[in-house]
Amino acid sequence: MKRFFSIFISVFLSLSLVLTGCSKDNKDQSNEAKDNVQTSSEDVKKFEPSITFNGSSTLAPVISAISTDFIEDNTTWNKVDDKFPEENIAIYVSAGGSGAGIKAVIDGTSDFGMVAREIKEEEKKKIKDIKEVKIGIDALTIAVNPENPLHKVKNDLSKDEIKKIFAGEYKYWDEVDKSLPHTEIVVVTRDLSGGAHEVFQKNIMGDTQVRQDAIQSPSMGALVSKIMENKNTMGYASFGMVNQNEGKLIPLKVDGVEPTKESILDGSYIISRPLIVVKKGELTPTQQHFIDTVMSEEGLKIIEEMGFVPVK
Predict the structure, then answer these.
(1) Pfam families attached here (predicted)?
(2) What is the pLDDT of residue 39?
(3) What are phi and psi of 88, to 5 degrees?
C-alpha cells in the first residue's frame, strides 16, 4: 500500500495530480474532520505550514501512514481550510524512542512527541501546559519463531516462567519444558532505557533484571526481525507488529490469557501500553486539523489496519 512507502521518516510536498486519485469515501471522511475545526482570522495569523513528530518507533509508522493520506487528500493547506494560504503541507515524522519524543517536546525541537507508554509525573511537570491525545493501545506479546517447537507443546507461559527466561534462570529450552531440545535460549529486548522495556519491566520483571547478554534492539522492528531470523529467540513483540507479520511470529498466552483486541481493551492481558501523542501548549490551527484527522473514522481505521487497538 502507498502509505507504507514512508515508515520512519516522511516529508511530503505532493503534486496536485495526486488529488485526482482520492476516493470519495476518503474525501467524505476528510471533510468530516475539517468540519470539526472552525478557523478564525486570529487562527490564520498563527499559521504554520509544517508539523513535526518525534518519538516511539512503534507509533511512527502509524503517524506516517495517516500523514501520507492527509497530504495526498489535500496537498496544500488551503484545501484543508480555505482561510489558510496555498502552501504545501509538510509533516515530518522521525523515530527515536518514547523518551526521545518527550525530550524533543521539552526542548522545543519537535511539535509533538510520540509515546508508547504512560507519561511520567516528572515528565508532565517539565512540559508546560501539556496536551495529551491517546490514539490507541498496544500490547507486548511474548513471541517466538514459528519453527520454535515451544508453542506446540506449551503455548501458555506464566508470569514467573517468563521472568525466569528473561532473567537467565532458564538458559535452555528443555528447562522450560523437558520435551524441548537442550538448546540455548536467545533473549531479545528493546534498549533497556526505552519505553517498551519500562512497560515489560514493570508488568513482568518487577525488581528482577533481564540477563546481561540479552540482545538490545534499537527499534521494535529490529526486535521483531531478530525473532523471525532465529528460531531459538524469544522477545516481547508489539501486538501491532505481530499483526503486521502474521504467521511469522507466534504470540504466546500469558497466565492463560491470549493477547487479543478484547483482552487488551478489558485489561485481562497484563502487558499493554497506551499510544499517546503529546504536545506542549495549545495546538495551532494546522496542528488541530491534523490531530482531528488522526482521531477521525479514517484515522482510527488506519490505526486498526496497522494492528493496534484504536481508542474511540
Answers:
(1) PBP_like_2
(2) 62
(3) -60, 140
**Long-range contacts (CB closer than 8 Å, 24 or more residues apart) made by 223-227:** 223/188, 223/189, 223/190, 224/143, 224/249, 226/186, 226/188, 227/143, 227/144, 227/145, 227/188
Q: 143, 135, 140: which is closest to 304 by C-alpha?
A: 135
- Closest-CA residue to 48 (of 279, 284, 281): 284
Supply the pLDDT for residue 1: 42
233, 186 contact by CB (below 8 A): yes
C-alpha cell at 20: 485526482
| Domains contained in the chain, CATH given | 50-138+274-310 (3.40.190.10), 139-266 (3.40.190.10)
Strands 186-190 and 215-217: parallel
Q: Is the dihedral of CA 149, 154, 159, 163 positive or negative?
A: negative
Residues of the chain with pLDDT under 70: 1-46
What percent helix, strand, coil does the chain show, rounded to 5? 40, 20, 35
